[in-house]
Design a protein that fits this description.
globular; mainly beta; single chain; Immunoglobulin-like
Length: 837
């Protein structure tokens, strides 16, 4: 029965299917291309992404079916308190639990980050209700509202808090909000503020006044809207700064005349607090506010019509955006993010943002915080590209929560977004999603499934790869797992093909040629086995069925030809084998190739290779006399491609414990990028001995497994000296040993391994199954040989008996490729790398 219920719920959820274009300002219709095809990501929840190539614009959409009993919207706060900031996806991860699984998240409201008079870091500027409780009071700004019947509304929210003692009723100006930015200075100087446990452990440093601790008259405090909240005064005192908010109690803080009011109370007085909250257009319609989320105070779509004029939209500027809206029948909620301030998507003005909501099915919509705050997360992954390059910590956000019972069994399959329009000869490995019976995603990349297809499409390789034939057609692709299946219509079209890369940098790992076909603007891999291949220099690399195997350092070309289409192309292949785990990119012996700039207050400047730190055989000293400066720095500039494909890069320095740094910044980039990644250490205190500053490849490039990123480049290293570690007129020395590259894979699972790059191995590549290696053996020695593949698996283990001088390696039976040979002696192990042709 549960499975049938889930199926009905799933079929009732919209698939985000829309027309062909969005009408934006200037009465121009922009074509919409699908980047990520609509697919289910949780109970009653679909996700898709789109682009407007002519605009250009990138759009990300989540659609939530409010009729689904297993899904809910729930507000959240940075660090789970009013007074705090946190990245939305981190908040989502903390809230994720069985029976409360986070399907999606976006950023929320604009927030206070600094004010002239009060510290208000992270407080939502529009107020917020979470699960029917007021955590900050509304202030009249436009908000998305979910009422107690799960019905959405969009309107301005008005707040009128009161506190009553007997027949005396006074204004309660705010709840967990330190200032009312649209009220007069006089009002703010006489505010009466209620602090609850939702704020933080303590109040903030708002100067002066008095405070009263209050407790509930009975039961526990719950600060909901439009209800009497009886309480009792427990203590009264002068306010002298951050004050603990007792657990289960609350604190009233008064300034000016409100301080006088608190001082007029006595311990034991009974008070009644009321948080009167209303929609501006329909006061009294809602008594309970389940969830609210504000933003820039702009309603952008009302009753199906754009609420802002083009002039108002233009004045708002073109920026990244986040917004919320809902359908005409109030059953669907849309959360939409638009990328901005980037080449692929400059952003959108507010009237056009309303048009985007209308295009995707919304009837009403409101703008939330945007700019660098805009982010959308789905099942733990960030889907958009935040304009600052990284996800920003913000004050609050909106979660999409699955309330389904905990269940890890896969009971439903979905194909991840396409493309399912494929070019002829495509080699397509679909991503299959595994859901439980309630629609909760349990496996984002299901394994163990089996693919089948209708014969006209082509054939299946290794149970998971669809290899398309050479004719245009329409067929069905099916994935099956534990008796459950999902079907997808696949359309095959004739299309142009091309090599994805013009050149490639290789090490000992084989490379599968990347050939692409293009259908409807989408690039799809093509099976390279359909080409005839040959290498321009078989001593440098070989190529079989589109798999290139590097054999020796050097540069050559690989050529491919497809007879049926008469298409031919070529790719330049550069081979660089690392010879040991740690290699020096620069030992600083050629400082004349660096451009050095520095603060003018660093005088008596010298560059020397003498008097290096103990144990250094190479390196450089940068000597200077310090003169007072606010921001002293030293910058080394040199554009260098890093050798081969390293796993990490390190800088080794020594300051003799006398120099600290506010920051050390590396300017690096991928080969296919022009913009530099700034890798920053932050503060480094002075340390004795050598200091190693290291970064992994993932810090340098967003695509560490993509050959397009290599070689990696370094452009500069900047040292920002901490002035407090320096004394004016004193001499200092910054020693730099080397810029070092690490190739972790050369360890091959051994400890205490000496990589024998000094050893002579011949012939190499091996062609007849026998190689010879000259070892430094001064007496007959027992040698044991192990042959290991690149994954570290031992393929051959032989005792070579007593050897002296030159050792013969029997390598018969190994297929073409690259291997490591371990040569074990009595007390050491050497490693040699060999290639089999």
């Amino acid at each position: 029965m549960k499975k049938n219920l889930f199926l009905l719920l799933f079929l009732g959820c919209s698939l985000l299917g829309y027309g062909q274009g969005i009408l934006l300002h200037g009465n121009k219709t922009y074509a919409v291309d699908t980047l990520s095809y609509s697919h289910m990501v949780g109970p009653g929840t679909n996700y898709a992404s789109y682009r407007l190539p002519e605009y250009p614009m990138a759009i990300y959409v989540m659609e939530v079916d409010l009729n689904n009993p297993y899904i809910k919207l729930e507000g959240c706060m940075g660090q789970d308190k009013v007074f705090g900031l946190e990245q939305p996806t981190r908040v989502a991860a903390r809230h994720n639990a069985p029976g409360h699984e986070v399907v999606g998240v976006t950023n929320g409201d604009f927030y206070f980050y600094l004010s002239d008079d009060y510290l208000s870091y992270g407080i939502a500027r529009s107020g917020q209700f979470i699960n029917n409780e007021c955590v900050t009071n509304p202030v009249g700004r436009a908000c998305f509202v979910l009422d107690d019947y799960n019905k959405p509304h969009i309107d301005n929210l008005d707040f009128n808090g009161t506190i009553t003692k007997g027949s005396d009723t006074r204004r309660l100006h705010s709840l967990n909000m330190l200032r009312l930015e649209w009220e007069s200075d006089q009002v703010n100087a006489n505010m009466l503020t209620l602090y609850t446990n939702a704020f933080s452990a303590k109040t903030t440093n708002v100067a002066g006044g008095s405070y009263a601790v209050i407790r509930p008259k009975s039961g526990a405090f719950f600060f909901s809207a439009n209800k009497d909240i009886p309480c009792v005064v427990e203590s009264i005192a002068a306010y002298e700064g951050p004050t603990t908010i007792p657990n289960g109690k609350a604190l009233l803080h008064g300034r000016g005349t409100s301080s006088d009011y608190l001082n007029s109370l006595t311990v034991g007085d009974e008070l009644t607090i009321r948080l009167n909250t209303n929609l501006r257009r329909e006061p009294g319609l809602i008594t309970d506010f389940k969830q609210t989320m504000g933003g820039s105070n702009h309603i952008i779509l009302r009753d199906g019509e754009l609420f802002l004029t083009p002039e108002q939209g233009t004045s708002s500027g073109v920026h990244p955006r986040t917004g919320m809206g809902f359908s005409k029948d109030s059953t669907k909620v849309y959360l939409i993010v638009v990328d901005g301030r980037q080449g692929h998507s400059p952003g959108v003005q507010l009237d056009d943002f309303g048009a985007i909501f209308r295009y995707f099915g919304a009837w009403n919509a409101v703008n939330l915080d945007g700019g660098g705050s805009s982010v959308m997360g789905v099942n733990g992954s960030i889907m958009n590209k935040p304009s600052g390059g990284v996800e920003r910590a913000v004050g609050n956000g909106m979660l999409i929560i699955s309330q389904a019972p905990a269940d890890d069994d896969i009971a439903w399959l979905e194909f991840h977004d396409g493309p399912f329009n494929l070019p002829t000869y495509a080699s397509f490995t679909p991503i299959v999603l595994g859901f439980n019976q309630y629609g909760v995603l349990k496996m984002s990349r299901l394994t163990g499934y089996t693919l089948t297809c209708t014969p006209n499409l082509g054939h299946i390789e290794n149970d998971t790869v669809l290899v398309v034939g050479g004719e245009g057609c329409t067929g069905t692709l099916t994935a099956t797992y534990n008796g459950y299946s999902v079907h997808k219509t696949v359309r095959v079209e004739q299309s142009p093909m091309n090599f994805r890369l013009d050149s490639v940098l290789l090490d000992e790992r084989p490379y599968r040629m990347e050939v692409e076909g293009t259908v409807n603007g989408q690039k799809v891999p093509i099976d390279p086995k359909i080409f005839a291949w040959h290498s321009g220099d078989t001593d440098i690399c070989s190529v079989t069925d589109g798999i290139i195997t590097a054999l020796a350092n050097g540069t050559t070309w690989v050529y491919g030809y497809h007879a049926d289409s008469d298409y031919r192309d070529s790719i330049q292949v550069r081979v660089q084998f690392p010879t040991k785990r740690y290699m020096s990119q620069s030992d600083m012996s050629d400082m004349e190739n660096f451009t050095i700039s520095k603060s003018s207050t660093l005088t008596n400047w010298t560059v020397t290779h003498d008097n290096l730190p103990d144990g250094w055989n190479y390196g450089v000293r940068l000597n200077y006399t310090y003169g007072t400066s606010r921001a002293p720095f030293i910058k080394l500039e040199r554009q260098m491609p890093l050798y081969s494909l390293p796993d990490s890069v390190s800088l080794i320095i020594n300051t003799n414990g006398e120099i600290g740094f506010n920051n050390v910044i590396f300017g690096m980039r991928s080969n296919h990028e022009t913009a530099l990644h700034s890798l920053e250490t932050g503060v480094l205190t002075p340390v004795e001995g050598d200091l190693r500053i290291s970064y992994g490849v993932k810090d340098i490039t967003d695509t560490p497994t993509d050959k397009i990123a290599y070689p990696l480049w370094i452009h500069y290293i900047s040292f920002y000296i901490t002035p407090s570690t320096q004394t004016s007129g004193k001499s200092y020395s910054l020693a730099i040993k080397e810029l070092q590259l690490c190739y972790d894979r050369l360890v091959v699972g051994l400890t205490n391994l000496s990589l024998a790059d000094r050893l002579l191995v011949y012939p190499n590549p091996v062609t007849d199954g026998v190689a010879h290696v000259a070892l430094a053996l001064d007496k007959p020695t027992d040698i044991r040989m192990e042959v290991v593949n690149l994954e570290g698996r031992v393929l051959m283990n032989k005792n070579l008996e007593v050897q002296f001088g030159e050792v013969t390696l029997p390598l018969q039976g190994l297929s073409q490729g690259t291997y490591f040979v371990r040569l074990h002696q009595e007390d050491k192990t050497d490693l040699v790398k060999i290639m089999i042709k």
